[in-house]
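User: Quick one: structure for sequence A, then sequence B.

Assistant: Sequence A:
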Amino acid sequence: MTGFDDRYQVTIVKYGTRTTTRRDVFLNYPLYNESDGPIGMDFFFWIVRSPRRTVVVDTGFSPEGGRARNRTQLAEVSELLGHFGVAPASSPTVVLTHAHYDHIGNVGLFPESQFVMAESELEFWSGRHARRAMFHHSVDDEGLARLQGLKSEGRLRLFEGTLEVAPGIEVIEVGGHTPGQCVVKVKTSDGTVLLASDAVHFYEEYDRDMLFMSVADLVAMYEGFDYIRELLDSGEIDHLVAGHDPDTLSRFKAASGEYGHLGATIGQLDA
């Protein structure tokens, strides 16, 4: 039975955006025999909170990482964390779904936190293929060095397969987009949420079986789609939260306050 402290409120926080083309987003786009056109791409991190516990999922891109790639930063991640009730000094656990620049760019905001990541993810980015152009364009060397620093400090918990971070919060390794890409399953008062991160960038990507342009393992990414469909079809999850879709916020309850337009929530904090 799910107890009072096992149910959470999920806050989806948008901190950046860009406009690009469909050909730039979907792998081998000419195969679909469709005209090219513009597409938006938003950048998020996620906050999971109960009355007793806070878990942050990913940390967004750093200002330097965003500028280097011409991304538009809508607000400082540190300011958004504070607005949505997270004090980094309180050392919340931080789940890193994978090691791309827009997911680990601000780990330095959490100087005392414990971090969680799939072991296969760290192994890959520590190995000989990490510097190949098809992979390296999505990472920052400084960010990868910080991961090694976290490991040396004993603040990086590595796992294989699945890990219960806390009652009601499960991290699941699916691979595909990166070797250790993870999704996060969270129990809330409004049902179970799956934070897909980059296992599903866009709802269209998932609905139409259209792979994102950056893929480490084609078959694993398709299998990730199938796994998520099984979770939805079985009722094991009630809400799918895509990792970069501009439609994401509009699907859920709008947040309030100065940055309310940059946030949406699922579940009640005091439920």
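Sequence B:
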Amino acid sequence: MAVNLSVKNVPVELAELLKRRAANNRRSLQRELLSILEAAVGRGPTPREAAATRDVITVNGLAEVSRKLFPQGTESSVAYIRRMRDSR
């Protein structure tokens, strides 16, 4: 059974920082606060650990995405740089 908790008299600046942190972690404010509490009591990863593992992609995964986006490959970077230089 879940319990509702309430925190009173939170300074506006702190509330804004928490909202920003939740947005950066792609969570609701409620979920961000619960994550902070879980980390504080040693249940679950710390917020820093959770952020470090979010949206991780391997080199092989990146190569696969690149092949899907550019199935014919891309032009030579040398040709691209020369065009950029010559357009000045």
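The two ends are 68 Å apart (CA to CA). The chain is about 60% helix and 0% strand.

User: Thanks, that's what I needed.
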